[in-house]
Amino acid sequence: MTGEPTVQEVADWWATAVSRVEPDVIELRGRPIQEVIADTSFVGVIWLLLRGQSPTPAQERLLEAAMVASVDHGPHAPSIAVARMAATCGIGLNNAMATGVNLLGDSHGGAGEQCLEMLTAITSRQADGEPLESAAASVVDQWRARSKYLPGFGHRFHRVDPRRAPLLERVSAAVADGVVDGGFLRAANAVEAILAGGRPRPVPINIDGCTAVVYGELGFAPPLARGLFVLSRSVGILAHAWEEAGQGRRNKGPIPPSVTPTFLPL
């Protein structure tokens, strides 16, 4: 760009295929908003905006199940706890929500993305001709060399995550119906079998792993697994922040005022 920018150059700077907004016109991926309002669910709109086309009813139901499963895990979750505290500090509901969302990092909120990366690596090796069990073992070894935590497996509260069965059953049904291929489900089952070897108790797949399977089967890239989780968990963050705001408490801290933190002298 040389000289003064033209109007067209400025318009091209913000070129987008996501939406078109002009006087009296709103379109999402080329569809008039009037049509979208009339026939598309919120989850369907998420798919439309991210993928550029509408999902099939079966794809939409599977995506919705994964997003419903992730909405909340109570004040044990740091994102929920901090949103509730923020709601008592004289800031707006949007600020409280942003506070919670901003805690969704690699350790809290990122396991789904990481698990999908791991499962993608397994399916990629399979596509190159490596048997499933060998591919899964190699990728698990690589991840274990990086961290003692394998993303998407095991849970600090649940021996078996109560969200596991309903989600994986839906994926299995979708495989049987030809909606998805099943490669990510098979990869996750292979990892689960590896982790169960030689242990008195298995290390079952958790919500992050289950949603990684769903998002992988539906063709979402690993970074979008975290983005979709953030959208889902925002519902719980909003509900908790709103509940806390209505309780009238001011400046809520992480522990009750009657409890004094342990002092550890140097």
Automatic annotation (TrEMBL):
<comment type="pathway">
    <text>Carbohydrate metabolism; tricarboxylic acid cycle.</text>
</comment>
<feature type="region of interest" description="Disordered">
    <location>
        <begin position="247"/>
        <end position="266"/>
    </location>
</feature>
<dbReference type="GO" id="GO:0005975">
    <property type="term" value="P:carbohydrate metabolic process"/>
</dbReference>
<protein>
    <recommendedName>
        <fullName>citrate synthase (unknown stereospecificity)</fullName>
        <ecNumber>2.3.3.16</ecNumber>
    </recommendedName>
</protein>
<keyword id="KW-0808">Transferase</keyword>
<dbReference type="GO" id="GO:0005829">
    <property type="term" value="C:cytosol"/>
</dbReference>
<dbReference type="InterPro" id="IPR016143">
    <property type="entry name" value="Citrate_synth-like_sm_a-sub"/>
</dbReference>
<dbReference type="InterPro" id="IPR002020">
    <property type="entry name" value="Citrate_synthase"/>
</dbReference>
<dbReference type="GO" id="GO:0036440">
    <property type="term" value="F:citrate synthase activity"/>
</dbReference>
<dbReference type="Pfam" id="PF00285">
    <property type="entry name" value="Citrate_synt"/>
</dbReference>
<dbReference type="InterPro" id="IPR036969">
    <property type="entry name" value="Citrate_synthase_sf"/>
</dbReference>
<comment type="similarity">
    <text>Belongs to the citrate synthase family.</text>
</comment>
<dbReference type="GO" id="GO:0006099">
    <property type="term" value="P:tricarboxylic acid cycle"/>
</dbReference>
<dbReference type="InterPro" id="IPR016142">
    <property type="entry name" value="Citrate_synth-like_lrg_a-sub"/>
</dbReference>
